[in-house]
Amino acid sequence: MSSLGNFVKNIRDKMRLDAGINGDAQRIEQLAWMLFLKVYDSKENDWEFDDDNYISIIPENCRWRNWAKDDKKGNAMTGDTLLDFVNNTLFPTLKNLEIDSDTPIKKSIVKTTFEDANQYMKDGVLLRQVLNIIDELQLDDYKECHAFGEIYESILRELQSAGSSGEFYTPRAVTDFMAKMTEPQIGLKMADFACGTGGFLTSWLKELEPKIKNTSDRTEYEHSIYGVEKKQFPYMLCITNMLLHGMDIPNIYHDNSLTKQVLNYTEEDKFDIILMNPPYGGKETSGIKNNFPSDLASSETADLFMSVIMYRLKKNGRAAVILPDGFLFGTDNAKAAIKKKLLSDFNLHTVIRMPHSVFAPYTSITTNILFFDNTQPTTYTWFYRLDMPDGYKNFSKTKPMKYEHFAPAVEWWHNRQEIFIDGFDKSKKYPVQELIDRNYNIDLCGYPHEEEEILPPKELIQQYQEKRASLNADIDRILEQITDVLGINFTEE
Fold first, then answer.
1. Would you call 197 exposed, middle or buried from its count of C-beta atoms within 10 A (0-12, 13-18, 19+)?
2. SS3 427
3. What is the chain's Cα-based Rg?
4. Stated pTM of the model
5. pLDDT at 1 exceeding the cut of 50
6. DSSP state letters, 171-223
């Protein structure tokens, strides 16, 4: 097989010649459904070997082996014939597969993967050339399959700079750090309710796999993850990712986690571990708020997901969640209520402040990792500022954040001390009452020497809106205290 770099480069070069592909996001989406069918076909080979009675949900003429494979004898479809088959037979067939509640997950994922998939290529000869490159992958070979896992990760990493698609990819250094700090163990069930391409799921599995000791452990491992993704494109990428990681029954659902009434969750809906980077900056329909208690009904998606997480974390469960600075300093009614619940019902033991540009070039918004568990109310919270590594002014596509950049945080994690540098707190432990007295503004141990950064207009507006909402909430609170002291009741006038 070609080297990792050559595989991606060859695909990119072919697709750039096609008039139907417009930009990296469409190129990756085009590649995604082809890779899914190739990986799925390889899985079906295994399933057929294990079960003589196995019947594919895909009609024979639409199985990868029967239309995409080139037998090198001049029989492979190409040109207009291939385009006609893909556009008018393959896609309609897979989009309209009949499934019901009794259809096994490993079969139903074919339809859910293709429900909103798109075929962009317009040159059937170039399409044939791309299919041939993909078909060279020998996914039945363990070493080659493992090597392709790295190729696939590099494809997902490209999402970070592919316009709005970057929201679906969390840097692997971050997901690996969060998975490691939550201490995966065999028998625990981990969830991500907005799983994107599956980064947290794969980091969890990577940490868990070395702990497999027997067949029982292997079974627990294969059933240890649960994911939900609202958007079809990352859902497709995630399903393929899970199949590549040996998940024959990927417990991943194409759905919106915010459409359920949070008060209706039962013990069966809860998980031992929750790892998430909730979508932020987005808005949901007004009806979504009705699924949450009135005091928690925010219009910000990240706030809503925090409530979902709190209602779905098992007793003694652990969570690690990425949230923007706006969540920390925000004191509007909903954010204050969410943080009040977090501190009173859960143990928010650690907040890691991450340096800017971790998610560059997709977004410049600064983010934080909140670690908490469902063991007891918070008594105190540690804040730790992770500084930019030496030699870095910004993270970028060519200089991304690496796991070793978390080394100072890992060392501090296991030997916690308050750190005071140049007149500013780098690490400090705050009693919960102090956080409450700040009206739940927990913007602490921040970056004192942060250079002013020119944000894109959308992010600048969002930041101003969050700060204005926080300031307005503070003003309203202070005015209410003053009018109470003066005995003024404006509602009577």
1. buried
2. strand
3. 25
4. 0.88
5. no
6. -HHHHHHHHHHT---TT--EEETT-TTSHHHHHHHHHHGGG--SHHHHHHHHT
* The two structure tokens encoding residue 31: 């590649």
What values do phi and psi take at 276, rounded to 5? -155, 150
Token pair recorded at residue 181: 């700090």
The model's pLDDT over 246-297, given as tens digits with 9 standing for 90+, comes to 898 899 999 999 999 999 999 999 999 999 999 987 767 778 999 999 999 9
Smallest Cα–Cα separation from 189: which of 103, 273, 258? 273
Three-state secondary structure call for residue 272: strand
pLDDT in tens, 367-413: 999 999 999 999 999 999 999 999 888 888 888 899 999 999 999 99
Exposure string of 309-335, with b = 16+ CB inside 10 Å and e = fewer, is bbbbbbeebbbbbbbbbbbbbbbbbbb
Select from 445, 447, 442, 408 the least CA-distant residue to 425.
Answer: 445
Instruction: Encode pLDDT of 232-243 as tens digits.
Output: 999 999 999 999
Backbone angles phi, psi at 381, to 5 degrees: -130, 130
CB atoms closer than 10 angstroms to residue 206 = 16
Burial 343-365 (b: 16+ CB within 10 A, else e): beebbbbbbbbbbbbbbbbbbbb
User: Distance between CA 443 and CA 461 in Å, rounded?
Assistant: 20
